[in-house]
């Protein structure tokens, strides 16, 4: 009898141990599942922030465009004022280069006039004025001004203006420039004054 009781007691202890072991395994599995779930939740990407209000975005874009427009208008207004000022300066001072180039010749003319009474040799006076005229022509050429050639030239309405017809000059002189009454000039290949000429008839 005592042996049977002892046997039953051992069996009960064994059953209790098995139950405790199973319970422990169950709890361990539950803990592992909870841990796995926590890890999975941590790995999940964060939810996207809520989309921006389209009305607010449109108003912001409108404000940016309005600011850009104002800046562009201000820049264009400044550009227009600068161009207007430069144009006015060009009109007022456009001849500065020409005047600066001619002033030395004016000085030569004044000196020639002042010294004219100091010599009795008209040839020297004539030579002095010829040098001044040559200097003037050279200066004008440097500014793009050229004298229109009329010597033995065919009459050309693009460069010449007929002021007289000279008859009886022969067939070889017909339609040709016989004499230049007033010289003509071009500025950068543009006629600024036609040469006044007499032509053979």
Notes on the protein architecture:
- This protein has helices at 2-43, 54-93, 96-115, 122-142, and strands at 145-147, 160-166, 177-182, 185-187, 190-193, 195-200.
- With 201 residues, it is an alpha+beta fold.
- The protein is built from 4 helices and 6 strands; from the N terminus they run H-H-H-H-E-E-E-E-E-E.
- It is rod-shaped.
- The strands form 2 sheets. The chain has a 3-stranded antiparallel β-sheet.
In short:
The protein has 201 residues and is of the alpha+beta class. 61% of the residues lie in helices and 14% in strands. The strands form two sheets. It has a three-stranded antiparallel β-sheet. Strands 2-6-3 form a three-stranded mixed β-sheet, with no helix packed on it.
Percent helix range: 55-70%
- Rg (C-alpha, Å): 55 Å
Q: Could you name the ranges where pLDDT drops below 50 across 5 or more consecutive residues?
A: none
Distance between the termini: 172 Å
Structural class: alpha+beta
Topology as a string of helices (H) and strands (E): HHHHEEEEEE
Count of strand segments: 6
Q: Kindly estimate the percentage of residues that lie in beta strands according to DSSP.
A: 5-15%
Task: Give the helix tally.
Answer: 4
Summed over residues and divided by their number, the pLDDT gives a mean of: 83
